[in-house]
């Protein structure tokens, strides 16, 4: 009988001894749970980036492998196969091709806005050429990648075991900058995908700083800093509304276009920048196919003249073909225009979430503050440990001879340490350090060095304790480190952001045309075409320019282009933005529309000064003066981001208000005039640039009852220009600028014009002989005349009649402007 037969029970059946360990489950339930487990493994372990450092595991492991092997930006390049091998053997148990593909992308300057790998060799091209094999290419970390790993050895992040439990790896990198937004990410998981566009480092840092300084900031506030995606290949994004929606909801569709130049004379369409992630060779092939199929007509030849300096694809046209029409056909039929679908999906606490712009920055700042907190605690422990050791060292130096004798007389090192603890009351750690000291460390010179180091450590400990004890100080460290990275690595924006696309915006329908804008004391405003006011001789009564309601009076009039920004300054010290075309156009006899319907003014707030602005360049500044004689300069760029709720423009004392604002380059002189006819001229540099919330400094010393009326600026040297002065009773004069010497600010100034018994000057401006002037009275009368109609006379004179006024009427405001369309100026 066989062994099997001997062990077989009667009936030939074995007892089912394991039946109690078997669970009966439904097949569909098991499949569902297994698929969910698989999906979450792919989502968390491979396909989606972590919101904190913006990296997927493979990218994180590649960078950490370089850190582990000390392949930094200051070391030599290492074979890519070595980096891939280290990552695969130690931390990433997947195929080497997948790892190398990830490394290659991190080195491509046309894929990453800020490459994290510095590659040497063939890493592919914009034409879709594949990279060379990993045995031929070399790589090392880029300097910016080192910022991702900075302080990783200071207990700043949590660690986990590698797949084989031999080593540890970081769960996340310290991430010195918001990499998820800066470099973006894309990936397809199970049942979901992510597609986050890259952004400009400087803009993202500014938005993060805004969130630190203003924790209540909205997405709209952050968009004042983050204009939109910034792709490494440039191009342009068409449609700001789509960007706003994507930032607000975490999802959106952006229209991305390449940049083209049209040459009508030579009949060319030249492509100079490509949309993001578009293969240039495929695009050229597609254009050729379209020409062959007759879908794009008029093309004679296509040449790729691209080189290392940039993209240049020349589409030569046949004679008579329209470059604009051909370009539009290319937008329609090729990927020269494409849709970028934004899905801001990232892992938050291990779970996938779609995030708004604010939420992405919030999560990053939470991570970064934790990194700084843990780093500070680690450095504090090290500093306290070192200070403790130095204190024992000082004891040994102070008692050098006795310490040497005690150690020499001890039978062992342990007895020596015990003796030191008993004799001098030092700790075990201090005693251990003392017995290991060399005799040369007991000199008096050594004591000076130890005391100096100990004092520095005490300061360091105090600072670290301050950071750990005050959340505000900790966030200040985060802010300063972000700004430092911005200073070191930020560059200019590459991608342009444009309005509209094929949609026709209101601005597109408004012609660029110079208009006269008037505002009243009760807050009504309108714009009128300049053609409604014919040029006439000075001294006339003018024609009606506004139909005012009873009790109202016209307060300001200025010339602007329809597309200019209007900065409206109020008696509360706030500034509001309007486009000129937003003010309703109306005839001379119309009243206009209330300003409160155009800008969001508070109760009791009214516009006291308005300035048309065509740009907010950083090299220009606003010169502001108040009725009580204060002046300040503010960089124009501080007003470059419109807010519907306005911003603080200046601080004002009770009873004071802004009466004049000028846009200047800051290199000339400011001329401040008072209502009683005094004028002071001083270098603009005497009033240093200040923040928007500052009050300013004294511009002029006012006599009792006098007040500042207006301000203008003059260039140096003064040349043959004139100061144009107008008083409320209708008199005006031109005086050579050479008669106004520059002096220090805060003086009384010089007599400019005799104002008589009426309240004095309304306005002054710098003019040339070929300019025109519009004078508006409080009752709504308007006179348009040439500046050279007004006599050139010296200071301390009354001038000539510019406008004849009815009894009780006064000049309200004056606007001067060039006779050519490109010169309009207040």
CATH class of the domain at 539-553 and 614-817: Mainly Beta
The number of helical segments is: 19
Averaged pLDDT: 87
Number of strands: 41
CATH superfamily of the domain at 539-553 and 614-817: DNA gyrase/topoisomerase IV, subunit A, C-terminal
Please state roughly what percent of the residues sit in beta strands, choosing from under 5%, 5-15%, 15-25%, 25-35%, 35-45% or over 45%. 15-25%
**Main beta-sheet annotation:** 4 strands, mixed
What is the alpha-carbon Rg in Å? 37 Å
CA(first)-CA(last) distance: 119 Å
Quick overview:
This protein is α+β, with helices and mostly antiparallel strands and 826 residues long. It has 19 helices and 41 strands. The strands form twelve sheets. It has a four-stranded mixed beta sheet. The chain has a four-stranded antiparallel beta sheet with strand order 10-11-13-12, with helices on one face.
């Amino acid at each position: 009988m066989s062994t099997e037969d001997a062990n077989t029970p009667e009936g030939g059946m074995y007892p089912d001894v394991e039946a109690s360990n078997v669970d009966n489950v439904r097949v569909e339930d098991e499949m569902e749970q297994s698929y969910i487990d698989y999906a979450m493994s792919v989502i968390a372990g491979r396909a989606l980036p972590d919101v904190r450092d913006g990296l997927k595991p493979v990218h994180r492991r590649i960078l950490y492998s370089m850190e582990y092997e000390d392949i930094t930006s200051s070391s030599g390049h290492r074979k890519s196969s070595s980096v891939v091998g280290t990552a695969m053997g130690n931390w990433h148990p997947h195929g080497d091709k997948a790892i190398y593909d990830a490394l290659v992308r991190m080195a491509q300057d046309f894929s990453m806005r800020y490459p994290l790998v510095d590659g040497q060799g063939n890493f592919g091209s914009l034409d879709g050429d594949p990279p060379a094999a990993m045995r031929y290419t070399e790589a090392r970390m880029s300097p910016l990648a080192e910022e991702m790993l900075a302080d990783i050895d200071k207990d700043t992040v949590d660690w986990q075991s590698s797949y084989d439990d031999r080593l540890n790896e970081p769960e996340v990198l310290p991430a010195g900058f918001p990499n998820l937004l800066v470099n973006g990410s894309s990936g397809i998981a199970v049942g979901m995908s992510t597609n986050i566009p890259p952004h400009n480092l400087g803009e993202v840092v500014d938005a993060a700083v805004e969130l630190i300084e203003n924790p209540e900031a909205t997405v709209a506030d952050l968009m004042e800093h983050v204009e939109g995606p910034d792709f490494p290949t440039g191009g342009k994004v068409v449609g700001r509304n789509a960007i706003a929606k994507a930032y607000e909801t975490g999802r959106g569709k952006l229209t991305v276009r390449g940049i083209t130049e049209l040459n009508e004379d030579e009949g060319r369409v030249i492509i100079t920048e490509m949309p993001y992630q578009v293969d240039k060779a495929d695009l050229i092939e597609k254009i050729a196919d379209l020409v062959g199929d007759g879908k794009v007509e008029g093309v004679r030849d296509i040449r790729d003249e691209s080189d290392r300096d940039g993209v240049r694809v020349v589409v030569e046209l046949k004679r008579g073909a329209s470059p604009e029409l051909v370009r539009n056909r290319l937008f329609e039929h090729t990927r020269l225009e494409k849709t970028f679908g934004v899905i801001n999906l990232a892992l938050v606490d291990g779970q996938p979430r779609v995030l708004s712009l604010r939420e992405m920055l919030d999560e990053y700042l939470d991570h970064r503050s934790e990194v700084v907190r843990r780093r500070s605690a680690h450095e504090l422990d090290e500093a306290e440990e070192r200070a403790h050791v130095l204190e024992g060292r000082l004891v040994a130096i102070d008692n050098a001879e006795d310490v040497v004798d005690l150690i020499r007389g001890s039978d062992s090192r342990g007895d020596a340490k015990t003796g030191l603890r008993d004799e001098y009351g030092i700790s075990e750690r201090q005693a251990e350090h003392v017995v290991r000291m060399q005799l040369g460390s007991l000199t008096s010179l050594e004591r000076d060095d130890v005391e100096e180091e100990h004092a520095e450590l005490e300061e360091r400990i105090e600072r670290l304790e301050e950071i750990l004890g005050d959340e505000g100080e900790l966030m200040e460290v985060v802010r300063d480190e972000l700004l430092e990275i911005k200073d070191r690595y930020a560059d200019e924006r590459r991608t342009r952001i444009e309005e509209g696309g094929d949609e026709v915006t209101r601005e597109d329908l408004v012609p660029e045309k110079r208009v006269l804008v008037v505002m009243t004391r009760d807050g009504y405003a309108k714009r009128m075409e300049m053609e409604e006011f014919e040029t006439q001789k000075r001294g006339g009564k003018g024609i009606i320019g506004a139909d005012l309601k009873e009790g109202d009076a016209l307060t300001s009039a200025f010339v602007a282009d329809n597309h200019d920004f209007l900065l409206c300054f109020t008696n509360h010290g706030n500034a509001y933005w309007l486009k000129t075309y937003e003010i309703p156009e109306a005839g001379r006899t119309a009243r206009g529309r209330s300003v409160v319907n155009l800008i969001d003014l508070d109760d009791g707030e009214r516009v006291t000064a308005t300035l048309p602005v065509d740009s907010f360049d950083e090299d220009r500044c606003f010169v502001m003066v108040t009725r009580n004689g204060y002046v300040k300069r503010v960089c124009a760029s501080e007003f470059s981001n419109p807010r519907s709720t306005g911003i603080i423009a200046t601080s004002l004392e009770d009873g004071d208000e802004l009466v004049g604002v000028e846009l200047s380059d800051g290199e000339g002189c400011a001329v401040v005039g008072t209502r009683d006819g005094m004028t002071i001229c001083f270098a603009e540099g005497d009033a240093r640039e200040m923040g928007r919330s500052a009050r300013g400094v004294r511009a002029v010393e006012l006599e009792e009852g006098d007040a500042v009326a207006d301000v203008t600026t003059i260039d140096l040297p003064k040349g043959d220009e004139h100061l144009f002065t107008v008083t409320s009773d209708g008199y005006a004069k031109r005086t050579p600028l050479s008669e106004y010497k520059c002096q220090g600010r805060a003086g009384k100034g010089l007599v400019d014009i005799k104002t008589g018994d009426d309240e004095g000057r309304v306005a002054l401006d710098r003019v040339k002989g070929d300019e025109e002037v519009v004078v508006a009275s409080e009752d709504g009368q308007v006179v348009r005349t040439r500046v050279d109609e007004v006599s050139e006379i010296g200071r301390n004179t009354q001038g000539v009649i510019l406008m004849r006024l009815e009894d009780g009427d006064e000049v309200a405001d004056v606007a001067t402007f060039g006779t050519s369309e490109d010169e309009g100026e207040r």
